[in-house]
Amino acid sequence: LIGLVRALRPVFIQDNITINSVAPAATITKLLPKNLAEPIMAVGLPVSTSDHVGLAIAFSAVATEERKVEPYGKDSDEIVTRKGRWNGRSILCLGDTYTEVEQPIADLRGQWFGEKNMKLTRLQQAATDFRGQGTVSNELPN
Fold this sequence. Notes:
- With 142 residues, the protein is an alpha/beta fold.
- It has five helices and seven strands; from the N terminus they run H-E-E-H-E-H-E-E-E-E-H-H.
- 41% of the residues lie in helices and 15% in strands.
- Helix 4 packs across helix 5 (115-127).
- The longest helix has 13 residues, at 50-62.
């Protein structure tokens, strides 16, 4: 699901549509009744309520961001500094906490994925980015 959100983030925004996701961990629902969640709760681990997850869904629909998660394909690097509605973000619901996970992953991508891999992936994205905007240098990394 998160991969789908990442893929659709640069496409839907062209029509002023944003896409986000909510990833609930153990949550009391009809699929996970309280009696099945009791072993989790018995050892003091967090369990969410469906109301808590619902609030995350509502928040993701109205939240604003100070900057974009990351550029895609032919997007200019400056697109990251644009403020606006949340787009392409994911909220992890764990017990009574929320954590937005896409920004930290993007911020650290160069460290765990490698700068060269990031550049090559961006070039691959640009080669198939038919949105008709901008250009990305096709200079291959060392």
